[in-house]
Design a protein that fits this description.
Elements: E1 2-10, E2 14-21, E3 24-32, E4 40-47, H1 52-58, E5 70-74, E6 83-84, E7 96-99, E8 101-105, E9 108-112, H2 114-130, E10 136-141
Parallel strand pairs: 1-10, 6-7
Antiparallel strand pairs: 1-2, 2-3, 3-7, 4-5, 4-10, 8-9
């Protein structure tokens, strides 16, 4: 499986990209500019470790019933870069915030409908990773100049 985040717009502190799964547009990705992963191709894996964030998500009502562990991006120089719920760059320390809607407000890229986007993403990707399937995550900068 190939997942692509095609970044296409920036805010003052944020970026938004279009995420596609095997060529089909799925959702948007909000990221903080200061902590973005460099463009490139990376493997995804399940981080089966009970970090503080993992424990918090396992006990959160937003994740109840479907979240076990985080899906992480294996990016050199970065650790703990997950896909999780959030609608603004401040909700992330460099993670990928998935949402079904994106818009600009006060000079920042924001998202909406993050919880259902993350839940659906995990329902597609997590079982394949559990079975040992190789899933790549490619990041492309496609900003207009």
């Amino acid at each position: 499986m190939n997942i692509i985040n095609k970044r296409f717009a920036k805010g003052k502190n944020s970026s938004v990209g279009e995420l596609s799964i095997d060529g089909m547009i799925f959702c948007f990705v909000i990221e903080p500019l200061a902590k973005m992963i460099k463009p490139g191709k990376y493997d995804l894996f399940i981080r089966k470790e009970l970090t503080q964030l993992t424990k918090r998500h396992q006990n959160s009502s937003a994740y109840k019933g479907w979240f076990k562990y985080h899906i992480e991006i294996n990016a050199p120089g970065h650790s703990g870069v997950y896909f999780h719920i959030g609608n603004k760059w401040q909700d992330s320390q460099g993670c990928q915030l998935l949402c079904f809607k994106s818009f600009m407000e006060n000079g920042e890229q924001l998202g909406y409908d993050s919880t259902p986007a993350v839940k659906q993403f995990y329902s597609i990707v997590y079982p394949l990773l559990e079975k040992g399937e190789k899933i790549t995550y490619q990041i492309i900068n496609n900003y207009e100049t």
